[in-house]
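A common beginner's mistake is to predict each chain separately and then try to dock the pieces by hand. The better habit, illustrated here, is to supply every component at once so that their relative placement is modeled jointly.
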Amino acid sequence: MESNSKISLVGLGNMGTALGHALLKDQKQLTIWNRTASRPSVTSLVDAGAVFEPDLSWTISNSPVTIICVLDYPTIRQILYPIVNSHALKSKTIINLTNGTPREAREMKEWMRHAIFDGGTIATPDMVATPASSIFISGENEQRFSSVTNIIEVWGRAQYVGQDPGAAALNDLALLAGMYGMFAGAITAMALLKKQKSGSREHSGVESQVTGMLNPWLQALLPYHAKMAESIDRGIFESLGNPIQMQSIGMQNILKACDEEGVDAGSLRYFAGLMEKVVAERSGEGGIAEVVTLLLK
Ligand code: FVH
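With all components supplied together, the output reads:
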């Protein structure tokens, strides 16, 4: 079991800063490094008790565990590769919370060669250390993961998702894909609502319609996701009472209405094309989850 009272933190952007403040509140001794020392977040962490170290090697050598939270993997490679064989990293554990692809995480394990966990943070900086926050972790093994769980749990619910270094990134990006898909549809809906003619409810504003109608509708649909996922697991795409042929006509009506009302529905158009392809190539009596067969390469 590693002693986790001393932690180093590399990268003090919005996310790194939130992670750092949560660690300080948990009474950790924190050594911090950031490319730009003059960033106000550096001052805020030093004021809260962190020690700023201008040298990256010293920062890492100061604690058994170092958290990395920078912009992207090319940045990690740029700052860490030059010191990867130095004494500073010997016997250290790295927890990388930088967003990236599964392949980038696997490649990092290759060139890093030290103990490294890769993480996906399912939280915005404001959510860190609240019940809404959870963190996927992968790499090494579950036993070694248990030696760093007490750090991860400072920020949110810790979920170990496997030894494959890329597993956390895959889970993280899958959730974000769901989020951006939802945003794409929701923002198209908001644009359409914005086009309401005077005399209708546009004076109440888009926000009240989103709160009063769109959000309850999306919330009511969440169990449908689980039913679609079950179809995907079984490879049998029942209609679930809503055959894709019927849904495809509804989708075409959305695209047509957007054209008529002056809304760009491009973010839905590609998906509508996939639905049409399923209808054209299959019976059209199955469910919308059958689209997944066109996505899997
Ligand atoms: N913020 C969010 O909502 C999400 C929540 C989920 C996780 N993401 C990922 O976390 C990584 C860091 O995100 P961030 O929000 O902290 O990002 P920024 O505020 O833009 O800070 C970027 C830090 O990266 C440093 N940096 C950038 N380029 C370099 C470089 N060439 N060399 C050294 N450091 C670099 C930057 O340093 P500086 O500009 O202050 O000198 C910041 O410390 C990210 O992967 C998210 O996807 C956030």
